[in-house]
Amino acid sequence: xxxxKSLSCYVCRGLSLVLFISLVGAAGNGVAQNLREVYDGxxxxxxxxxxxxxxQVVRRFALPxxxxxxxxxxxxxxxxEVIGVASGSxxxxxxxxxxxxxxxxxxxxxxxxNGIAIIEGGSMVxxxxxxxxxxYSIGALPDINGNGLSEIIxxxxxxxQGYTTSVAILIEATPRVVKRWGIADVYEDNxxxxxxxxxxxxxxxxxxxxxxxxxxxxxxxxxERWTKAGNATRYALRKxxxxxxxxx
Length: 248
Known about the structure:
Order of helices and strands: HEHEEEEEEEEEEEEE
Oligomer: single chain
Shape: globular
């Protein structure tokens, strides 16, 4: 039988353990509550269609400049196409703007010359051009670093030798240069190589702040259902290759 002194020690240890678990749980919940979703590789990509007036602005102001910029580039035969549009405050805080993604030409398998026209009202206020992949979607984040500007998310992916991969590319149109946050891997499968293939998707989240911290959570698809395969852990975005520049 335990005496009162021993009993009090057991109670103290028990209370200490409960308090420790509570504090850890509260800290974990606090981080989870502060996270903002960036991209979910499980979700079907949905592009917003640019309005006819925005398409006209891109054709009138962005397309002629794109032609001059990429003139003479080997393998770049013009095949202009507007891909999608995102809404946000991309170059000026508290301002309604649209970022219109267009493809100027395809230069190879999953290689293309692309542009993003930032439109405010009925005018183009900024124009970004870059050589990258055949980006198929554009979205926006409502400011992750506290400078008042919306970040731009580009979706890209390809299938090679039966393997499919998708990525999310995060950039920002800061006043002087295009900030390249990085690339996040968001989906992969080997469905072109076997009947019972493996599909993995990743949910990317961020803890906003002057120096945002990114997290990634893994999911596996089994029996047509996505199952969580790991908790959210800190994740370092990959470096973006190629050039993103403002075109005057």
